[in-house]
From TrEMBL:
It comes from Pseudogulbenkiania ferrooxidans EGD-HP2. This is Uncharacterized protein.
Length: 65
């Protein structure tokens, strides 16, 4: 089960840093900053192998947060 935590400015700043320094997509980086799956933190690369429908749902959940 995925849980999306409410995010703050620091999460956006960290996601921008990840996007700039590591070349991650900003939204993937923001998802990694705010989502846990089965209580476990994730990294942007986890989204690469996830079912596309689930990634789209996570994107919508974070964008609507």
């Amino acid at each position: 089960m995925a849980t999306v935590a409410p995010f703050k400015g620091r999460h956006i700043r960290l996601a921008r840093t990840m996007a700039r320094d590591a070349g991650h997509d900003f939204l993937f980086a923001l998802i990694a900053q705010t989502v846990t799956i089965d209580g476990r933190a994730i990294v942007p690369e986890d989204l690469d192998d996830m079912d596309g429908h689930d990634v789209v749902k996570l994107q919508a959940a974070v964008e609507g947060n």
